[in-house]
Amino acid sequence: MNPRVQIVEGDITKQQVDAIVNAANTSLLGGGGVDGAIHRAAGPELLEETRKIGGCPTGEARVSKGYRLPAKYVIHTVGPVWAGGHKNEDNLLANCYRNSFKAAKDLKIKSVAFPSISTGAYGFPLGRATEIALRETKKFLETDKTLTKVVFVCFGEKALNIYKDIAKKVFGE
What we know:
Layout: E1 5-9, E2 19-24, H1 33-42, H2 44-53, E3 61-65, E4 73-78, H3 89-107, E5 111-114, H4 126-143, E6 149-154, H5 157-171
Parallel strand pairs: 1-6, 2-4, 2-5, 5-6
Antiparallel strand pairs: 3-4
């Protein structure tokens, strides 16, 4: 596996990285799951800033400060709601990763942590989403040398094992 990629089980709000990625909704005003946890951990200043940003379309990314998080930045990206795979969901999810990596590169940061985008309330199948996430990560890291650490933070042992299994296929042993 690529030495710059780590797969861990844990809480994304506690990651010691330059930026964490938020699986946000289009309003950027907080919600459930990862989004709600990030807003709670960052404090009310995050909501104040995201109100000014004015939303984010599916597949795109926006950046805010991290406030009370260990991470200096939050990269907010909006994943697609799963509709059976017939509404361009795979490409929209890939765009979430591409645009998050572009934001990380623009920030000139060294490390970023991702949750499993769209696999919670949005219903994207975990294995399919993981393959997209890791494939886009591999593509980005092949051409970019600025990021030294990409962490995938899994919620639960099942997700951790799926990420590790798919990583072996995408990156090789």
